Each structure stands twice: as C-alpha cells, then as structure tokens.
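Incident log, support desk, overnight shift.

02:14 A customer reports that sequence design results differ from what the structure should imply. Their input is reproduced verbatim below. On-call engineer (initials T.W.) acknowledged and began investigating.
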C-alpha cells in the first residue's frame, strides 16, 4: 500500500462520502479514492470545491467532515480564498494539497502550502515521512472535529504519494464534548431569571452541538425572545412565537427593538466577534457569554458572566437548573409574544410596498417575498451570496428547521453560495437546496453551474440581476439564463413581476426531475436595507 491508497482507506474510516477538488492530485488521478467507494467531484475552479466541502460539514453539524484536494502551485493558490473563508466562518474541513518534491518545496518562488496556509487553518502539516501518514491525517481530522471547528491541512509532496507504507491500522477520530463548569451554571440562571427583559442570542455553536431542543426549552421556560447570528440562523425555529430572527447587516425590525430594550443578553454558541454582518451588541446591560472557545471570552465584548463549554451541554444544564427553580409558567409569555408580533407587523407594513411591488425592473424584495411564499421552508436548505443577495434575503426568510439556512458573512467572499448549495444537496438529496446571488457572485463561480449539471446536482439558483455590482455603480451585463442553458442546466430569464411565482414553481419542478436550475430575475437597483438603528 502506498501513501495515496492509505489516505483513501483513512477517508473511508472517517466516513467521507465525497472528495471535492481538482486534478492533478493522486487522490483523483490514480482512482484510489473511487476504488475505495468515495465519489469524486471535480469542479471548474478550486474554490468551489472547498465551498462544497464546507457545506457538507455545515449541514451535517460536522458529523461528516468535508474533504478537498488539489494540485500543487496554482491549485493551492486558487484554493486559498475558500479555505480562508471556512476559517473565518469556523467550518471544519480537511484539505490535501499536493506539494512540490521535498527537495524543492522550500525553493523560492514555489508555493508552499505548509507555510502559507498556517494563518487560515487550525492545523497545518507537511507529510515528509510516509510512515507517519496515519498519525498525520488523524491529527488533522481530530483538530477539525474537536474544539472550535476550523480547517486542517496536510500538504503531501509529489515524491511522497507513491511511497510504500505497508499495511496501516486506523480507527476513525471522534468529536469529544466539554461540558461547562457546574459552578458557572447557577449564577447564569440567577441572572436570566432576575432580568426583566432578557434576550437569548444563539450562534453557530448551537448547530455544531445540535443544541436546538434545549435552546427551545430554555427560551420557553424563561419566556424570553430568541435571536440568532446569521451563522446560527435556524438554530431556533423562526416560526416560533418567541423568534426575533437573525442579526446581520440587514435584519428584522423586532430584533433591533428587543436588543435596544433588553437588560440582559445571553449569548450561547457565539464568539461575539465584531463584524459588519452581525448584531450590534447593546450597551448598558448585562452580558452572559457561553462559548466553546475560552479565548472568545472578553475578546471584544466584556461579559458579566461567562460559561465555557459545548452549547448543548451548557443549555441542558441551564434547563435543568431553571426547572428546579420554577414551579410553572412565569406569566409573561403572552405579553412578550404580543410585543414581538406588534413590532413585526409594524416593520412588515413599512416593507410591504417593496415586497409586493409591481414595478419593472422587478424589485428584488418582490422576488424574495414570492420565494418565501412558494417554497416549503421545512423541506429546503437556503443560502446566499455576499452583498445585496444576503441583505435582501436574511430578514424575510424564515427557517423553521435546524440547518435549513446556511448563513455566513464575516469575510463576504463572492461566489460562495453556489458551492454551498451544491454541497448541501449532495449531503441532503431530499432537500430543495437554493442559493440566491447577484451579478458579481455569478461572475466569480458561475461556470460551476456546469459542475452541477455534470454530476446531476439539481439545485435551484436564484439570480438577482440588476446589471451592476451591488450599489457600486459598476455596470455588468449578460444573459445568464442562456449561459446556464449552455452549461447544461435549465435557465429562465424573468422580467415581469407577475411571472415570478410561476417561474419558481417551474424551477422547483425541474429540480425534482433532476436538473439544476438558474432563474434569472431582472431587478431594479435597490439600495434600501432593513437595518434599524439602535437608540
């Protein structure tokens, strides 16, 4: 057995179903991975392969770690942005870039992944000793699976892949959870129960911990409204009466209202990192910060009390402690729900003219509104691209099921959403997987629509085409529906607002037949966002 074959067997033991990427890399070129029973997905551009691996990790809560491979030199250079995005968004994945021969790997100007990827990976190694293949790959998977999830990379020089390693023994890694210090839980519950207007804020850590049920239980016990980060969107059912929606650059009116008036913010599964695409943490109130990563505590937001541990274990401990304290309902749920409903109705009334607009070119909010009406959100996974696609969609799309929305935005990389939708569809073939994007994003990764067609990955891609790059007044052009048709997908260009719903319905039917779809909506240059200012 050589190094290539050993890695293929290790991937099987780790439960990997797909290998994403681009030749030349022995994991693709030799057929070893396919012989081991893993399907290979070769993309048009390396970054999209990383994005697909990223999605597999996200929509399985890290149960399956996405894996990517590419060639040395330009392959690793092209892949950098995708790995950096996954690092910023705290996504576990494994990258196996090919490297130059060991004798040349440090010769300038050859691109050395081991050196250059260290700041965008959690673990970064170069396999120079073939006999160490099992230990090296095990460390990578263990790093990705445990603690704060992030990418791990193993660069393998060209002259190492074919070297013999004999027979290896390998057992799959496990994801181990760390619970909170028991002494930290009662003070947190004291603060939560003493607060008059608490708000719970759930981040992506709730998804990875699968803490959805205890999050709902705690919210209902203390009768507190729940907001999420964009990465945490769908961690709390957004059709629940206590839901405030997700914080982002654009967000629901009720979220800003309750943040403005809360006297305690309990953040769970969140880093509280400052970003233009998250909530503005209110001042002059108490902060409880529950996070898996102790370096998050007091990093940018000073907390009054902190709990370090897995989000699910923390929430379960808080539910148990709260149940011991309460004899029954606290009696304020009805008032809280009514306040949420009233503020939301007022906010939606302000936006209804845009959501129901008959103008041409089509108002993009009309597209989003009809998408929410036609699609059954319980059976869908939705994501978006950077910029306006995110900002138009996030406040108005309600995700009732966990992992029904792939939210992101810390580094806002254009072209991310297409690969996310394709990876999600492979991981959950029973779901309608949708990406919403704009002119700039499709220019970055649009040719990978052909990848969706080649591998029969029937996603629904919604393009908001306003002939410019967001609000930068940079004119773009093109008939992308025709491009999609040329790439083997179903393409449809829509200019009449009265045709939006019918086009979406036709698109869904095509995906059910197994065909990827691009619906191109010719939209107005909308610049207004739902971003209420806090007082």
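02:41 Re-run completed on a clean worker. Output:
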């Amino acid at each position: 057995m050589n190094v290539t074959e050993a890695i293929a067997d290790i991937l099987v033991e780790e439960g990997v179903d797909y290998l994403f990427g681009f030749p030349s890399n022995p994991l693709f070129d030799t057929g070893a991975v396919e012989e081991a029973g893993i399907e290979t997905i070769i993309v048009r551009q390396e970054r999209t392969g990383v994005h697909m691996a990223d999605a597999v990790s996200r929509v399985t809560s890290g149960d399956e770690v996405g894996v990517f491979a590419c060639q040395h030199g330009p392959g690793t250079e092209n892949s950098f942005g995708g790995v950096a995005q996954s690092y910023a968004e705290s996504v576990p994945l494994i990258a196996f870039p090919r490297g130059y021969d060991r004798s040349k790997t440090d010769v300038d100007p050859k691109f050395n992944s081991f050196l250059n990827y260290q700041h965008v990976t959690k673990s970064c190694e170069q396999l120079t000793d073939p006999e160490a293949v099992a230990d090296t790959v095990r460390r990578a998977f263990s790093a990705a699976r445990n603690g704060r999830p992030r990418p791990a990379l193993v660069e393998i020089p060209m002259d190492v892949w074919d070297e013999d390693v004999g027979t290896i023994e390998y057992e799959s890694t496990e994801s181990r959870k760390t619970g909170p210090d028991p002494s930290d839980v009662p003070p947190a519950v004291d603060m939560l129960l003493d607060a008059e207007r608490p708000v719970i804020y759930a981040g992506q850590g709730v998804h990875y911990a699968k803490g959805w049920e205890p999050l709902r239980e705690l919210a209902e016990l203390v009768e507190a409204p729940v907001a999420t980060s964009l990465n945490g969107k769908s961690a709390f059912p957004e059709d629940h009466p206590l839901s405030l929606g997700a914080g982002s650059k654009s967000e629901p009116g009720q979220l800003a209202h309750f943040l403005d008036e809360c006297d305690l913010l309990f953040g769970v599964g969140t880093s509280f990192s400052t970003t233009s695409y998250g909530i503005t943490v209110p001042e002059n109130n108490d902060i409880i910060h529950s996070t898996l990563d102790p370096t998050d505590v007091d990093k940018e937001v000073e907390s009054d009390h902190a709990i370090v541990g897995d989000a699910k274990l923390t929430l379960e401990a808080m539910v148990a402690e709260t149940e011991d304290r309460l004899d029954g309902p606290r009696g304020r749920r009805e008032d809280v729900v009514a306040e949420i409903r009233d503020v939301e109705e007022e906010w939606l009334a302000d936006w209804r003219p845009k959501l129901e607009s008959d103008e041409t070119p089509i108002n993009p909010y009309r597209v989003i509104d009809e998408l929410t009406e036609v699609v059954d959100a319980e059976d869908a996974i939705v994501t978006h691209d950077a910029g306006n696609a995110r900002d138009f969609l996030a406040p108005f799309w309600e995700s009732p099921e966990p992992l029904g929305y792939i939210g992101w935005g810390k580094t806002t990389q254009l072209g991310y959403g297409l690969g996310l939708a394709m990876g999600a569809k492979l991981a959950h073939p029973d779901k309608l997987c949708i990406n919403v994007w704009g002119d700039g994003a499709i220019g970055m990764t649009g040719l990978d629509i052909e990848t969706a067609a080649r591998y029969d990955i029937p996603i629904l891609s919604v393009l908001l085409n306003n002939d410019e790059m967001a609000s930068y007044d940079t004119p773009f052009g093109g008939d992308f529906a025709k491009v999609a048709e040329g790439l083997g997908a179903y393409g449809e260009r829509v200019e009449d607002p009265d045709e939006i719903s019918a086009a979406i319905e036709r698109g869904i039917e095509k995906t059910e037949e197994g065909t990827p779809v691009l619906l191109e909506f010719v939209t107005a240059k909308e610049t207004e966002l739902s971003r209420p200012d806090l007082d």
